[in-house]
Each structure stands twice: as structure tokens, then as C-alpha cells.
Design a protein that fits this description.
The structure is a single chain. By secondary structure, the protein is an alpha/beta fold. The chain is built from 9 helices and 10 strands. The longest helix has 24 residues.
Length: 312
């Protein structure tokens, strides 16, 4: 019933805001509430039930399809798509065990959404591996999920090497984030691997073809140190953004239909289970006073946007 409730909600929002919104996304990172929330229990609702997690993922796919149907039937203005977190996963070695482990990890984190939405089917290898844990699919579900879209939104933050591990949970995998030696890790422990964003774009292109892609999230949390005036000279963040923008320019030159880039984030904010500690913003927020102070990265990024080129 949740999928129908979501379609009803979408209709209300389309009716109320359709005259001023040009681009719609049905979901943002559906893996988070489903496989991470219901499945592993890291985020809300924290159930740690794999079967419920995969069924929630299927329900989110259904909700997406029904919302797109409502949008098309109502002939609303603008365009509609979905936003998925698509990180780069590569085998840790050339062994068949690691290669298959990487395939399971990719199908579990990404193809479970990409395949039914864009190809009208779930990844066969993953479904066979999951067995009784796989989602229950009713007749007509896949046709409903497989709706024509106007764009794909992609969130990218890191690259991981995947290996087979007998102690690696349901999927029997282990993942280790890769990072450039000169870059270290972010303030939330993520590796920094800019070329991964271009690799994902090329891989996704094999699934969605020439459909427009927008980078809807990319950025980093660094241990900001504010001076007495609240200003942060965050050159590590500038370097992170610069390297990723270079990779995106290369992807465009190589034929990827990339149409836009949205930095995460404009302001420091509440970061899920990590609370207010990690700061992703290019504008510093003093949480006690709510004072906003643009960081050095804000000035740099403003110049990049205004001049349509890298200035450093």
C-alpha cells in the first residue's frame, strides 16, 4: 500500500508545485531507507532484517514507477527522473572469487534499482544468490517500475575495492575504500578517488544510453578550522572539488551526456546518524548563533561557476 500512498502524495505535490518546479526526482538514494535502514539497521527504521530490506527496495521501485505514471498522466510541465548513489566498485584482484564478489556488491547496491527502472528486470545473479531473501515480485510489477525517464541523478563520493570474504555477511563480500596517497581520507573516513566518478559515468552509460545525467551530489567533509571571524580556509575541499570537476570534464569529452553538477553541500547541516559533527558545506554555519560565513571554497566555487572554468 505504501507505493500507492506515495503516488497519491506525488499527485498532491505535482498539483501544488508543478507551476514552478522544472525538474523532479521521485527518490533520492532509495538504498538508504531500504537496504541500509530496514536491511542492515544502520539508519532508520533500524530493523536489521534483510528480507524486509529487499522488499522495501522493491516497494520503493514500485512507488517510483507509480509516481512517474502520475506525472505523465497529469501532463505536468518539467522533467522527471530519480537520484541514485552510484559509487565506484572494483574487484580487489583478478581472481574469479573477487570478480564475482564485486558483481554481487554492484548488483546489490546499484543494479537492484538501475536494472528494473531502466531495463525492466532485476539482476539475475543477485536474485539467485538471495534465494528466499529476494523480494516478492507480483505480476505486472516490473512493467510498472520500467517507466520512461527524462534524466538520471547520480550521487558519487568514493571508490571501493571488493573482495570475497566468508565472513562478509549475506553477500560474502568485503569492501575497502581506495584513496589517493596525497589526499588521505575525508572527515567521515571516506577515501578520495576522483577518477572513480568518471568510471561510474561510463559504466552507467551502458545501462541508460544517452539519457542526460546530473551529478546531484558530490563533495567532502573536512575538519574545518574557523578563525576568530568564522572564516575557514578549506584548501583541502577546493582540491577535492577541483579534481572531481576535471574528471567530469574528461567524461564529457569522452561522450558522456552529463548536463549538470550540484555540490554537496551549500551549508553545513545535520548529517544523518553522524549529527552535526561532519561539515560538508562551502558555507560555515555557527550552530549556536546560525551565523553563515562563506568559506574559501565558496569564493573559489563561485568563480568556477561564474567563469565556467577552473580558476586554480
Amino acid at each position: 500500500d505504501c507505493a500507492d500512498w506515495f503516488a497519491d502524495y506525488a499527485r498532491v505535490v505535482f498539483d501544488r508545485l508543478g507551476d514552478r518546479v522544472a525538474m523532479w526526482a521521485t527518490h533520492n538514494e532509495p538504498i538508504v531507507p531500504s537496504l541500509v535502514g530496514y536491511g542492515s539497521g544502520v539508519f532508520a527504521p533500524g530493523l536489521a532484517d534483510s528480507t524486509a530490506g529487499y522488499q522495501a527496495a522493491h516497494t520503493l521501485n514500485l512507488a517510483h514507477g507509480k509516481a512517474v505514471q502520475v506525472f505523465r498522466q497529469g501532463a505536468y510541465r518539467g522533467k522527471i527522473g530519480i537520484v541514485l548513489d552510484l559509487h565506484n566498485l572494483i574487484p580487489a584482484s583478478d581472481s574469479e572469487a573477487d570478480r564475482l564478489a564485486c558483481q554481487r556488491a554492484l548488483e546489490n547496491a546499484q543494479s537492484i534499482f538501475l536494472d528494473p527502472i531502466f531495463n525492466g528486470r532485476y539482476p539475475a545473479y543477485l536474485m539467485e544468490w538471495l534465494g528466499p531473501t529476494a523480494p516478492r515480485i507480483q505480476a505486472g510489477d516490473l512493467e510498472l517500475i520500467h517507466q520512461p525517464l527524462d534524466f538520471l541523478g547520480m550521487n558519487y563520493y568514493f571508490t571501493s575495492a571488493v573482495s570475497h570474504s566468508p565472513h562478509g555477511g549475506l553477500l560474502k563480500v568485503d569492501q575497502k575504500m581506495l584513496t589517493l596517497p596525497s589526499m588521505g581520507h575525508t572527515d567521515v573516513g571516506w577515501g578520495i578517488y576522483p577518477s572513480g566518478i568518471r568510471s561510474v559515468l561510463h559504466r552507467v552509460k551502458t545501462v541508460i544510453g544517452s539519457l542526460p545525467v546530473y551529478i546531484t551530489e558530490n563533495g567532502t567533509a573536512v575538519p574545518d578550522q574557523a578563525d576568530a571571524a568564522g572564516f575557514v580556509e578549506d584548501r583541502a575541499r577546493i582540491n577535492y572539488l577541483r579534481l572531481h570537476l576535471i574528471e567530469l570534464h574528461k567524461a564529457i569529452e569522452e561522450g558522456v551526456n552529463l548536463k549538470g553538477y550540484f555540490l554537496w553541500s551549500l551549508m553545513d547541516n545535520f548529517e544523518w546518524a553522524s549529527g552535526f559533527r561532519p561539515r560538508f558545506g562551502i558555507i560555515r554555519v555557527d550552530y549556536a548563533t546560525q551565523k553563515r560565513t562563506p568559506k574559501l571554497s565558496a569564493r573559489w566555487y563561485g568563480d568556477v561557476a561564474a567563469n565556467n572554468r577552473l580558476t586554480e
